[in-house]
Fold:
Amino acid sequence: MLSGKTVKLVLYEVIQFACLSVPIFVIMERFASLMRHVRGGDLTAYWLVVAASIAYVTSVSLVVWVPLKYFILTSRRFISEITAWRPVALAYVIVCPLPCFGILLASSKVQTDGGHRFDHFTELGVSLVFTSLIVVDIVERIRPLPLTGQADGLEADFELPSPVLTHLEQVATVSSQLSPERGQNGSLRQVEPGTGSLGSRWRDTDGYATRASSASYLYSSRFPSGCLRFLWIREPRVEVFVDSFLFWMDTTEMLRAAEVSSVYYSNWIFPIHIVAYLSTLRLILPPSSPLLGVLGVFLQDLPFLVIRICLVALFGYVTPLLYIMKNLFVCLTYVYFIFLTKLKVFNRTSMF
Structure:
């Protein structure tokens, strides 16, 4: 009987290998069909391309993928110390999206040079590549979390913190109140707890806390019970899926603009796919890496902004203006808060 960890490991490895091989097979088969149409129905070119795709996947699996996975599984201590980058993501970005983007560019070039337009579903390859890319990212991020039961630290989200301190006042410590009192004969007398001045001090403190509770503290509502209890639950495993898809939304929209017929059959498809592939290099870094911010600006937002402005100027509104504004605001805010705010003119406290 296989254990749960073994089943989860096998499931993850099968999913990642499928994300490696399926996009290559599908895109290469579409390219093989395109070559058959261009050559007038010649099946030789078709089967040569199909055989090349099978040989490529087999070679990459035996030379790169399987040795890397074996090394990771047998050297858990060494791999666990690598926190600045992800080896599996690096290997995947090199062996899968790179050749897929190359085949997509070759498909466009073949049709443009021959004056043909056989491919009427160009968006399939792009969606398949990025879906596989997102799935690999999700598997790498969700691997430490269990698939059944509650995730670690989830219990802390079941209840909202209460109370939340919003006002602080200096209060004397208990030790400072333990001052000795003198008796009738001049000798020192220790005050008993709950009696004398110390007892009155505790009563005053309790009264102060009661009076100040309404003004100095903000009490959050407790975690509700009943049928609507699930609305306050935060599930980190669900957030992994949401964050991964949102992380690549801008890149997929950039490639969607490249699938417009006027853009797809022009030379602008080359810079679009090049900058889109460069943006996928961010997958190498873990989500907690501080370098994601600067890489997002210089590998995504800045080149995407330039290309989108050029596309709108040449082909019209082939891309939504929302993404242009997103790239523009990200670049401007990055330059302002990272560089301009360090200047002396922006460090005056008299300003806003």
In short: The chain has 13 helices and four strands. Residues 153-166, 181-188, 190-221 have pLDDT under 50 and may be disordered.
